[in-house]
Design a protein that fits this description.
Elements: H1 14-19, E1 30-34, E2 52-56, H2 64-71, H3 74-77, E3 81-86, H4 89-98, E4 103-107, H5 111-115, E5 120-128, E6 131-136, E7 151-154, H6 160-171, E8 184-187, H7 191-200, E9 205-209, H8 212-219, E10 222-227, E11 238-245, H9 246-251, H10 253-272, H11 274-283, H12 292-302, H13 310-327, H14 336-343
Parallel strand pairs: 2-3, 7-8, 7-9
Antiparallel strand pairs: 1-3, 4-11, 5-11, 6-9, 6-10
Helix pairs in contact: 2-10, 10-11, 11-12, 13-14
């Protein structure tokens, strides 16, 4: 997809963490599939208008439209021989800069990286909320204000759950200043260890990605006090975007448009047929989630459907999260509108 924020981390090199965020799987580059999976494995660039295009893969449901577009032939129909590859953080960042990776999925965690010079832009959207904050079942902690003076577990300092928690707490009036925070963040590389820490009382709340919060809630071991997808402040906003390489946007605009058309078809398929999409993802092992029922529920919750006038909605959401990140100290700019206009680029489809 470490140090401690707040009281524990002072002067941490958060910027370095943010610039290297273009990763969901830390692996060496390895091809794992192509548009020819359902047809001829001998397809060449002459078969496809845009030839072979590589896409970084992820085990999260967030990137499911890429897998669905591959499996259902949407890429092929657009003249793309799609290949999924795993790549570490640096490889992804370099790939976007160079144009090797024309598109990857990500969220508002990437905004500081673009501000610092990563040559990429938001070119589309995928879905809404996939981050939750859980507390031990029966906990007296019910609201953001109840977390004042408490310890919150996160996957990494500077990561998206960390940022989402800070935005939520900041809107409730708590200090999220890194030198004078009202909460302490404890990072856990393994989400299972984070939930064990919650049950043991080492932390008071756990902020992280689905599916684990939802799984634990269904087991009756936790209460969910914040859901990025349903919280009144965030519910209507996209949190997972599509980032495009500026090089491809400039030099191959038709190719970029073809990619986005294929992914939009995949999003609409997931929205219309969540169970069938979940079966494809599970059977083909595109995700770490193999429970079809759970994946179906999450697909419905995340709302993948392409919206009417979606470009305006994406632009508005980029502006919204730029302002939020500036408020909690994650962006340097004094002109959030100018930065938001730099981050977002409308692609004519």
């Amino acid at each position: 997809m470490l140090n401690i924020h707040g009281r524990v981390v002072k002067g941490a090199a958060i910027l370095c963490t943010l610039i290297a965020v273009f990763a969901f799987d830390a692996c060496s580059v390895k091809t794992s599939g192509s548009s020819s999976a359902s047809g001829s494995a001998k397809a060449t660039s002459t078969t496809y208008k845009y030839g072979t295009i590589e896409f970084p893969k992820s085990s999260s449901l967030c990137s499911s439209p890429i897998a669905i577009a591959l499996e259902l032939g949407y890429f092929k129909a657009e003249g793309i021989n799609a290949k999924l590859v795993t790549a570490d953080a640096e490889t992804r960042k370099v790939g976007l800069d160079s144009g090797r990776f024309p598109v990857t999925n990500g969220d508002f965690q990437f905004f500081p990286s673009i501000e610092e010079g990563v040559s990429a832009s938001v070119v589309g959207a995928l879905h809404k909320g996939c981050i939750k904050i859980a507390v031990k079942k029966g906990s007296s902690i019910k609201t953001a204000k109840d977390l004042k003076g408490k310890k919150i577990g996160v996957d990494e300092i500077g990561g998206t759950p960390y940022m989402a928690a800070n935005m939520w707490l900041g809107q409730a009036g708590l200090s999220v200043d890194q030198n004078n925070s009202d909460v302490t963040y404890l990072p856990y590389d393994d989400s299972s260890l984070e939930f064990q820490a919650l049950q043991n009382g080492d932390i008071d709340a756990a902020a992280l990605w689905d599916p684990l919060p939802t799984v634990e809630e269904q087991k009756g071991t936790v209460d969910i006090i914040f859901d990025l997808g349903s919280d009144p402040t965030f519910a209507k906003h996209f949190c997972c975007f599509l980032y495009g390489s500026n090089k491809i946007i400039k030099e191959k605009p038709e190719e970029m448009a073809a990619i986005l058309r294929a992914l939009n078809k995949a999003r609409n398929y997931i929205a219309a047929h969540p169970q069938q999409a979940a079966k494809i993802i599970a059977e083909k092992k595109y995700s770490s989630i193999t429970d079809v029922t759970l994946a179906t529920k999450l697909f419905k919750d995340y709302d993948y459907k392409v919206e009417d006038n979606e470009d305006a909605a994406i632009k508005s959401d980029v502006q919204y999260f730029t302002e939020q990140l500036k408020t909690i100290g994650f962006l340097k700019t004094n002109d959030t509108t100018k930065l938001a206009n730099t981050i977002y680029q409308k692609i004519d489809l």
